[in-house]
TrEMBL record:
Protein name from the UniProt record: RNA polymerase sigma factor
Organism the protein comes from: Aestuariivirga litoralis
Keywords of this entry: DNA-binding, Sigma factor, Transcription, Transcription regulation
Keyword Repeat assigned: no
Organism superkingdom: Bacteria
GO molecular function, one term: sigma factor activity
Domain RNA polymerase sigma-70 region: 15-76
Keyword Transcription listed: yes
UniProt xrefs under PANTHER family: RNA POLYMERASE ECF-TYPE SIGMA FACTO (PTHR43133), RNA POLYMERASE SIGMA FACTOR RFAY-RELATED (PTHR43133:SF25)
Residue ranges constituting the RNA polymerase sigma factor 70 region 4 type domain according to the UniProt record: 104-154
Amino acid sequence: MSDHQFRNDLIGFIPPLRAFAISLTGKVDRADDLVQETLLKAWANRESFEPGTKLKAWLFTILRNEFYTVFRKRKREVEDADGIIAANVGVHPEQDGHMDLTDMQQALGQLPVDQREALLLVSASDMSYEEAAVICGVAVGTIKSRVNRARARLGELLHLNEASEFGPEPEVKAALMPKTGHG
């Protein structure tokens, strides 16, 4: 594969890499740093990429490994796991969608890293269980189990009991429903 083609392929994978990185780190600036480091490592090691294999899986593996490297280095930093510091610094969003997203991000942050990673690879990054298993270096059954446990835990954390709880609030649904009858 030529350098030009490799470069173009790398650029094409920036959006899914960034989405996965944001989901792992929970912070856009750290995610951008993680993606940048991933791209630099991929470029520096482009000769080791085997044409005919999946570039996406190779890049996600580099990103995942870099995330764990950074994660180990940052163990000594002060974390804001419950969001108390961030809550006092920022302005709270006013729209329900933003609130739901914030709730989801906080719930994702409470999942064990291996479960969050498996869930994001399969659900958010549109990878098969098999691809996710290769990236994580575990059996397919392990990925399926992690995804299942992650989904169940998210449901608990977000207090969701059934699928009908997703979407607009009942009042909004009622306002959006077409009127029937003449009453």
